[in-house]
Design goal:
Organism: Streptomyces calidiresistens
Structural class: mainly beta
Number of domains: 1
Largest sheet: 3 strands, antiparallel
Order of helices and strands: EEEEE
Radius of gyration: 13 Å
Shape: globular
Helix content: under 10%
InterPro entries: LysW (IPR005906)
Strand content: 35-45%
CATH topology: Rubrerythrin, domain 2
CATH architecture: Single Sheet
Protein name: Lysine biosynthesis protein LysW
């Protein structure tokens, strides 16, 4: 069972973004308030950046 820790602040709305003990670099986290997605850039120290937007391929 992983314990949820508050280790990051949303870069958009300043809400607390939940961070679990087993969170890894490259993982995507979502702000519970504004729903913006972030990518974990560093675990020690905790750092998040806006997640890159994935564009549709549409078979091109």
């Amino acid at each position: 069972m992983s314990q949820t820790l508050v280790a990051a602040e949303c870069l958009e709305c300043d809400a607390e973004v939940p961070w679990e003990n087993d969170t890894r670099v490259g993982e995507i986290l979502e702000c519970p308030d504004c729903r913006v997605e972030f990518e974990v850039e560093s675990v020690e120290p905790p750092k998040i950046v806006l997640a890159p937007e994935v564009e549709e391929d549409w078979g091109e």
